[in-house]
Amino acid sequence: MGNVEPLPSPKPPLSPLQESRSAISLQTTAAAPSSSSVAAAAVPHGHESLSRYFDDPIQGEYDNDDLPPLYSEHAETDAADSAPVNPLIPRGGDQLVQPFGHDGGGTTAYYLDPRLDSDPSFLIDHIQRLAAVPPRPFVRLRGTHRERQRGRDKDRHGADQVVDFDIRIELTHLLYTDITRQQAWRGLVTAGNLEKVRRGTVFAERAPGFGGAAEEGVPGLEQWCHRFCASPAGLKCFTLERRVLGWDWDLLRRRLEALVRATNYRGHAVVSFPVRDARVDVYNDCRTNRWRLTGRIRFLFYATFLFLLTWPWLLLRTRRWETVAAEWHASQPTSVPGRRRYAAGMGEEQWYSLWATAIQRAMLERRDCELDRGDLERAQGETVMQVSNPKRVLAVSLANEANHLSRVIRDLSGSAPGPASTSLAGTTHHVAFETQYYKASVPVWLDLIASPAEWAESFLSDEASEVLAVLGGLVVVFALPAAGASGDELRLLIEHVGRVVNMGLGGWEWEGVRLAVGVGEDAADDWDELCAEAGLEFVQVGVGQQQQRGLNEFGERIGMARVKEALESNDWAQTDSPSLSDFGDFESGSDGHPEANNVDFDPETLDFGFDRADFEGLRRAIWSAGQRDSPAAETAGASTREAKADDVARDDDGASAEDTSLQGGPCVDEGDEAEVDGDDVLKLERMTRKLQAVRDAGAGMGEAQRKKMAARAVAEAMKEL
Question: What confidence score (pLDDT) does residue 142 get?
Answer without folding.
Answer: 95
